[in-house]
Amino acid sequence: MIITSLLDTDLYKITMMQGVLHQFPWAEVEYEFKCRDQQVDLRPIADTLNRELDDLCTLRFSTKELDFLSSLRFMKRDFIQFLRLFHFQRDYIYVDASGENLDIHIKGPWLHTILFEVPVLALVNELYFKHIAPRPDYEVGREKLEEKIALVKETNKEQLGFMFSDFGTRRRFSREWQEEIILELKQNLPVNFFGTSNVMLAKKYNILPIGTMAHEWIMACQALGPRLADSQRYALEHWAQEYRGDLGIALSDTLGFEAFLSDFDMFFSKLFDGCRHDSGDPIEWGERLVAHYKSLKIDSRWKQAVFSDGLSFTRAIEIARHFKGRINTAFGIGTNLTNDVVNEPVQIVMKMIKCQGQSVAKISDSPGKQMCNDDRYLSYIKSVIARKIRNRKFGG
Known about the structure:
This protein is an alpha/beta fold. The protein folds into two domains: about 140 residues, nicotinate phosphoribosyltransferase, CATH 3.20.140.10; about 200 residues, Alpha-Beta Barrel (nicotinate phosphoribosyltransferase), CATH 3.20.140. About 45% of the residues lie in helices and about 15% in strands. The strands form two sheets. Strands 5-4-9-8-7-6 form a six-stranded parallel sheet. The protein has a five-stranded antiparallel sheet with strand order 2-3-1-10-11.
């Protein structure tokens, strides 16, 4: 049994789940799995994956786990009480390997399916690497980790204030390897390593759990909000209603950064602590964000830019160096941190494709990260966004 705790997930799944309970408990959704590496065949792991999912659906939150969640000031009492009753429903997830690719489909109430994504991706990743590398040489990974630690220590001489957290649960080489990395980073980079998205490991090692919202929060609001053109504003407003100033990092690329900036007006720019980058060129994104704050006469030095798109430590340090003294930077490093042992990492995702029976889309600023199964809807939402941006520019 690979997943042994329901806390073995990213914090932003739990924070979004609380928002769903309070604001959209009736919503029905669908998710679909996608492997971006066409040459990778995941079908051989299907039977083992099904057995792991059977085990996953037997788990419950323990009293100690719920006590830990209760200690987080933004977790509410009624949500904790709901989690006492929660467990995964096996009927909501389907795995099939009879076609050309491994098919994983999730369908059911958003409230009861939202936590599937991270453990499912972690299971697929770990089972795949067990299949192709049953006897991995962890010394290779340890040597790479030592090099990364040495690089950060050397960079500290520049006084960049370089801060990063672990975002690697969903694409980790294994659960044990992620835990070893967390322990090493805590011991060797206590100033730079400030948190992990993995709630179980945050609890175990007394580390700050990190996470706010993911793309699905904004995607679902395309179906839940009153107008498609205002869906991103609707998502940000409902997030602010739920957390009242906590968890104030806004995800900026669900509909593209230009569309985000058209919605991120003075109200949101002052209300949110900063933004997270997850696609497109990070330097260009950061420059546009700083310029956006400047246009609103907001001092960007009091704001935060969180970078989390396929980062290596070398690239993250370059970004920190570029923006030093202009905006506070922080970095979420995933695959390069927790899946750097053998072979190439596998690019796998699990994204929402429908909400309330309606197609939803993630447009992104990187073409390879676009997610939508409905070409007609994708064309329509792009036209809506383009018209909105055009009207904003020309005062329409």
